[in-house]
Write a structure and sequence with these properties.
Elements: H1 2-18, E1 21-27, E2 33-39, E3 45-48, H2 61-67, E4 73-79, E5 93-95, E6 98-101, E7 118-122, E8 127-131, H3 132-138, E9 144-148, E10 151-154, E11 157-158, E12 172-178, E13 181-187, H4 193-203, E14 208-214, E15 219-221, E16 226-227, E17 236-241
Amino acid sequence: MKKLILCIVSFIAFTQSTLALEYRQSRNAAADQFEVIEILNLKQLRLFLKNPQTDQYYRSFDNLQHQLKACEQLSFAMNGGMFHSGFSPVGLYIEQGKVIQALNEEKGLGNFFLHPNGVFAWNEKNAVILATEQYKAKAFKADYATQSGPMLVINGKLNSLFLENSDSKKIRNGVGIKNNKLYFVISKNRVNFYKFAEFFQKNLKVEQALYLDGSISSLYLQKNNRNDRKFYMGPIIGLVSRTNCAVK
């Protein structure tokens, strides 16, 4: 009986881990290529910034993995918002319910300050992606939150700042949401803001989408043996499987 219970618990944990994310590659009408990671299980999704033992910024997926518990496994990770040269977040950063960096409502130069910027936040049940002003008014109870910019898609519409024929092309990554399902996207080739945002709107049909960064965009995906090591990062979004932790 004890072995049977152990097998059932292991199967449930494995099933939850397996269903935690879906991966696919896709193209838009212009033949630009994108990688899409769909996530429903918010309980496994976290934000990481510093190693609590050393107070040092993780900066890489490898450093993050080394800090996880022996029973935990990083299955997906992506750079999670803009940061200063010292790796501290430019805007709001909440980790495990604690506000590490306050909401940034200042005006300035650079992508973060393109209007409107926004916040990606979640708890175990719900996730939101909202323009900064909307997020401030909503009083969402976040376990995790990262602020970045600009918003790519707002209420199903492209950010009006983007130019279709812009020659500013980079490897870009961002996150969108539809019916509480998250869509993390990284481009495989260089694209401008318009084409990147349009992919979220037309191909994924999301309601809201937020730009996370460009040029340093990085992906970790265990199932594909993908571990980008080219650039250091500030905030890191990670999906952590606790399958082995459930087996006693």
